[in-house]
Amino acid sequence: MAEAVYGRPEQAGEAARQGSAARAERRRGAAVRAVAVVLAGAGLVGALAPVAAATGARGARPAVTVDGGAVTVDGAPVAEAAGRADRAALDAAVRAMVSPGGSTAALGLVVERGRPAWKGAAGTADLATGAPASPDGRFRIGSVTKTFVATVVLQLVAEHRVGLDDPVERHLPGVVPNGGQITVRQLLGHTSGIFNYTEDASFAFEESAGTLQQWLATGRWRSYQPRELVALAATHPAYFDPGKGWHYSNTNYIIAGMLIERLTGRSWAQEVERRIIRPLGLSGTSMPIDSPFVPGPHAHGYYKLADGPADTTLLNPSMAGSAGAGVSTTADLTRFISALLGGRLLGPAELAEMKRVSPESGQAYGLGLQRTPTACGEFWGHGGGIPGYTTLLYGASDGKRQFAASVNAYDLSDPAATNTAFENLVDTGVCGGRPPAAAPAAPSVAAEGIRAGTGPLA
């Protein structure tokens, strides 16, 4: 297995000693780790656990249902939040993610009816310089990358180059064990049963101070090949027979990226660039293969270590690949989700397939797209996590509001405060700062609904 080191070993070691944020996502151990899972996955309930689990786990939370786009809370219809975005409430929500929420930085954007209604940031972009976080900064988007990749696959479906119900073996012979029984649809919807490679012990670098230090010094520079990650997953038994369950698996989207390359002759990153980034003018978005840099202005990501912060901003994104290597901005993400849900990237048939949530996921996850009913309506999107960064992306079904945010988690020593701040950020963002007066706050996608760990990537 080839390794690529960017810069001299002593530079990598020095980078490991400078600055950092807690992005623990393998939920094994203390309450602090449980909150890290929340920060890694909250907002992507569809990626970690069914929405039903999130909304039904707390008696104090309202029962939110969606029928044909109409939203009810505890049986009562909910109207769209009225008026302009409440900028003061949104500013307070991002500030609360820093204190008492324990993040080094947080930033967000609300777009209403095609126009920015609010953007804001709080905290510090670089602990070494004290530079403030910018609302226009770039960040790693983790598994929001999956929505871009799924869109490309569905475009190829529309071009009759692949079928959703084609067996994977037809296009990638010999790559996936039991590939003759696993379909493209099952890959995109996480119903394949294929083991999630980030749950392998080799990715459990956050389990102890020693393994984390080793990963910071050398492991994060390692270059992975897609076949290598699929082969790693294949050393573990499947979670279930294809189509007989739901389990979030980054391996599914590594395979989807390989499928794109087989069908087009170009890498998944090139196809995302050609089909989505350039047509939409997403100037702050990139899909790196193995470059360790976050281009342009950005807030740094950190781990909190006993001897101080360790900066984890630089890493080889091939550890995530087509499952989570992307970099973007809140402006680009809101433009992307608006274009996707508005039919600019997919035809009606393909968009309907993307939004067809599976019963196995608790009616929460479609094909690279998560469905989230809230007190302010039904939203679609995804969330993501990669060391140092947690991303949220929501788009209203009616197209009137989009919300994107990035959080750099750091000090998770007060789980209750972190959970509360994160829930408030989600609730405030999707409602533009103004929850409907007649309804309770939006149900959290953060706490009980994301109890399953997914490794260092989400």
Automatic annotation (TrEMBL):
Q: Which domain of life does the protein's organism represent? A: Bacteria
- Output the InterPro entries linked to this UniProt entry: AmpC-like, Beta-lactam-related, Beta-lactam/transpept-like
Please give the residue ranges the record annotates as the region Disordered. Answer: 1-20
TM spans, by residue?
A: 30-53
Q: What class of enzyme is it?
A: hydrolase
Nucleotidyltransferase is among the record's keywords:
no
UniProt domain Beta-lactamase-related: residue ranges: 93-412
Keyword terms, alphabetized = Hydrolase, Membrane, Transmembrane, Transmembrane helix
UniProt-listed Enzyme Commission number(s)? 3.-.-.-
Q: Pfam families attached here?
A: Beta-lactamase
As one GO molecular function, the record gives:
hydrolase activity
Record protein name field? Serine hydrolase domain-containing protein
